[in-house]
Amino acid sequence: MVTGCGLAFLLGFSSGCYVYPPVVSTPSPGTELRLDLNDRGRVAMGPVIGGSAMNVEGILKSPPDTAYVLGVTYVTYLRGEPNKWNGEPVTVPRDFVANTTQRTLSKPRTWLTIAAAAAGVAALVASFSLAGPGNAPSESGGGGGGTSFRGIPIGIGGGH
Q: Are residues 27 and 80 in the same domain?
């Protein structure tokens, strides 16, 4: 149970290890993009994705000639509120876009996050002694000649 919970935690925790570098060449369909909208784009796209949209994230569906066609996964608004979408297609004209970035897995961040989380889980396990009980026999301090198992009298032999 602890291992399954730890693995789920690590997978969820490491999924946030993405960076968004600028797109330097024409992206191909299937690429995960984030389009930062300019002021014109915010106003024009308002009826489609909601007013005050700051950026649109999604998977590029077709080559971007004059517009990006995305299967939208998130829209983030100026106040920072994200809105999850389910891949609905949205067309964003290129002249409405201030910056185009590509979602890319950061391997160094991911390994660092996994290492930190694993160290945290190991420390948690050690602090709660979840690794199992020790095998060293405990000493019963009372004498009396009875038989005991780990300091607990079991009623065999002479005694009380």
A: yes
